[in-house]
Amino acid sequence: MNTFSIAIHGGAGTLVKGMMTPELETQYKQALKKAIDHGYVVLENGGSAVDAVETAVKILEDSHLFNAGKGAVFTATETHEMDASIMDGKTLNAGAVSLITGIKNPVSLAKDIMEKSEHVFLAGDGAMEFAKEMNYKLEDPEYFYDEFRHKQWLEIKDTDSFQLDHSKTKDSKFGTVGAVACDKDGNIAAATSTGGMTNKKWGRVGDSPMIGAGNYANNKTCAISCTGSGEFFIRGVVAYDVACLMEHKNMSLKDAATEVINKRILELGGDGGLVAVDAKGNMAMPFNTEGMYRASKSSNGIEEVSIYK
Ligand code: ASP
């Protein structure tokens, strides 16, 4: 039997230790632990990597602490526009969605696009039409409301600036969520979900729903979910770049992921991190910021829930 493992993130950034209260830190760690444990149980019971990453991401989307699903950041027009993606490393099937509103679990809609449509990527009104056909229930805007995110938005509304989660304050971080997993059959998958950037406008879309940029999975190499300054992660084609280094330069998962996060994307000016797994169940969670909400768990005994370096 293959080693099975799962790694998740809840965003990266300048998580200044002193600015986090012990209570809040406990809440974050509990939310991460709940997500990793539920995803791990799926794998333990012989479930697929795809089902494990969906399970973990849904739990993070349901928590107001992260910038995805409930707690997603506000756009320039005080709405929530969410993006998500999922990829199956066994078949290279993928599903992605962007600029959707009112959907409780965008990752599940991305999975339905992968499994129940002929397409890979649906956006905006069309994606909402598809969700309607799939009988998704729409949540009221109040469901997604979070006081802290609203305050962040009030500080910069009516300006031209947009920001990665609360990057204007010293405690800047990216609150996107994601998961990667390797199941008992050695199949891998990745999923990512986000509310994007505070005060974003013009239908801005980041890396999270873009296959190859913020999310990628291929049994031959790795499964990757990213968080960080999306514009740079798109230009760096970050998730696929890690896979390319493994495939064409024979690098290990850890070396390839570290090279991209600590060198290539930094040289481009981007900050953030990623979680990665390969088909042998190895994991890597590099980030070039002060912290990244993250957790990992593997059948070989590894178990970690961390925030700082
Ligand atoms: N990468 C996301 C975006 O640019 C932001 C994040 O990671 O929090 O939309």
Q: Kindly estimate the percentage of residues that lie in beta strands according to DSSP.
A: 15-25%
Text of the CATH class: Alpha Beta
Strand arrangement in the largest pleated sheet: 4-3-2-6-5-1-11-12
Count of DSSP H/I helices: 9
Shape: globular
- The end-to-end distance, rounded to whole angstroms, is 32 Å
The CATH topology corresponds to Glutamine Phosphoribosylpyrophosphate, subunit 1, domain 1
Structural class: alpha+beta
Rounded radius of gyration (Å): 17 Å
Strand tally is: 12
Superfamily (CATH H level) name: (Glycosyl)asparaginase
Low-pLDDT segments = 166-171
Task: Assign the CATH architecture.
Answer: 4-Layer Sandwich
Helical content class: 25-40%
Order of helices and strands: EHHEEHEHHHEEEEHHHEEEE
Count of discrete structural domains: 1
Q: Mean pLDDT score, rounded?
A: 93
Describe this structure in words.
- This protein is an alpha+beta fold.
- It contains nine helices and twelve strands.
- It has helices at 22-44, 49-61, 106-116, 124-133, 141-144, 147-156, 230-235, 238-249, 253-268; strands at 5-13, 82-88, 94-100, 121-123, 177-182, 188-194, 215-217, 223-228, 272-277, 283-284, 291-298, 303-308.
- β9 and β10 form a beta hairpin.
- α1 runs antiparallel to α2 (49-61), α2 (49-61) runs antiparallel to α3 (106-116) and α8 packs across α9 (253-268).
- The protein binds aspartic acid.
- Residues 11, 67, 164-165, 174-176, 194, 196-197, 206-208, 214, 227-228, 230, 233, 272 line the site of aspartic acid.
